[in-house]
Design a protein that fits this description.
The chain is α/β, with parallel strands linked by helices. The protein has 9 helices and 7 strands. The chain has one domain: Glutaredoxin. It starts with 14 loop residues before the first strand and ends with a helix.
């Protein structure tokens, strides 16, 4: 029987970012495009590596990293097959020491798997990783994005199982979960919630309830985060 997690926390008001922040975003469009073209990826996580930030699962069932008490709350809808999503994930990871690891920002992930059948399958696999803990999810998340750019074969069942072993998951438990398709309902629930929240493509993220569609480069994200922290101070 497919298990669907209970309703997640709503991202809040669906406003557009302030004009000042929108101007910062606007000047970064070309830089973001270049980042996608270059397809810059991170080094894959390895088994046994300790994550430098707090991880967990929200009461509504979403994996998070960073302190739940952080002043910045970033909810991201993402597709593992989406190159722009990988670029955003790279930028957020690069900024992690400044914001996530210092308690300034919590990042919460939801799947929005809609591009290809591989989108759905990789999202299912990430949920199987989450079943073994939030650390396992984030390591698996990073490996999935690190292997983007190698074609859809990167999301075959064979490769998905290899990634699970690479990050140190219990491979027997992972295989049982993936074979059972027990997480399909969770993926559909996230997709439905994204549609209800106004998501039309990936990545789409909400920073303290304000929607921002698309990937932004590291420097622009830093400017956005600092502006919002300043507004809240």
């Amino acid at each position: 029987m497919t298990t669907v997690r209970k309703e997640r926390r709503h991202p809040g008001r669906k406003g557009i970012l302030s004009l000042r922040i929108l101007i910062v975003i606007g000047v970064a469009v070309l830089a973001a495009a270049l980042l996608i073209i270059l397809n810059i990826g991170r080094s894959p996580q390895v088994a046994g590596a300790n994550l430098p930030y707090e991880t967990g699962v929200t009461p509504d069932g979403d994996p998070y990293k960073g302190s739940p008490d952080a002043p910045l709350y970033l909810l991201v809808y993402s597709d593992f097959v989406c190159g722009h999503c990988g670029a955003l994930a790279d930028a957020l990871e690069a900024l992690s020491p400044e914001y996530v690891e210092t308690g300034k920002m919590q990042v919460v992930f939801r799947s929005y798997a809609f591009l290809t059948p591989e989108s759905v399958r990789s999202a299912e696999a990430s949920e199987c990783a989450l079943d073994q803990g939030a650390d396992g999810f984030w390591k698996y998340h990073d490996v999935l994005y690190a292997n983007r750019g190698t074609g859809l074969s990167a999301y075959s069942d064979t490769r998905l199982r290899e990634y699970a072993q690479q990050v140190g998951l219990d491979i027997s438990m992972f295989n049982t979960c993936l074979d059972s398709e027990a997480t399909v309902g969770n993926i559909q629930a996230d997709l439905d919630r994204g549609i209800a929240d106004g998501v039309q493509g990936t990545p789409t993220w909400f920073i303290n309830g304000e929607m921002v569609p698309g990937a932004l480069p590291e420097d622009t994200l830093r400017a956005v985060f600092d502006a919002m922290l300043a507004e809240g101070s």
